[in-house]
Design brief:
Oligomer: single chain
Strand content: 35-45%
Keywords: GTP-binding, Ligase, Manganese, Metal-binding, Nucleotide-binding, RNA repair
Catalytic activity: a 3'-end 3'-phospho-ribonucleotide-RNA + a 5'-end dephospho-ribonucleoside-RNA + GTP = a ribonucleotidyl-ribonucleotide-RNA + GMP + diphosphate
Protein name: 3'-phosphate/5'-hydroxy nucleic acid ligase
Helix content: 10-25%
Strand order of the largest sheet: 1-2-3-4-5
Cofactor: Mn(2+)
Distance between the termini: 29 Å
EC number: 6.5.1.8
Length: 84
């Protein structure tokens, strides 16, 4: 496990520079709480880092986790994937 920043933690043993940059940028968004988690298979995605869990603060007392947020994956047939 590597703490890349206060709001970004990675469990990936190999993380390319583009993926790291994409996740670091996402972790600076004000509604991220408490941090983005990168799973061992994290890699660059369109929109969000594939293999990430992005918890978002909805209000001061309520938040929800968004696995992969919304991204495009070849394994999804090129369709937009969502946890819903």
């Amino acid at each position: 496990m590597e703490h890349i920043s206060k709001r970004l933690i990675s469990w990936a043993s190999i993380l390319d520079d583009q993926t790291r940059a994409q996740a670091t940028l996402a972790s600076t968004m004000p509604f991220i709480f408490p941090h983005i988690a990168l799973m061992p298979d994290a890699h660059l995605g369109k929109g969000a880092t594939v293999g990430s869990v992005i918890p978002i603060r909805i209000s001061p007392t309520w938040w929800k986790a968004r696995p992969n947020s919304i991204t495009t994956l070849p394994s999804c047939g090129g369709h937009r994937c969502s946890p819903y």
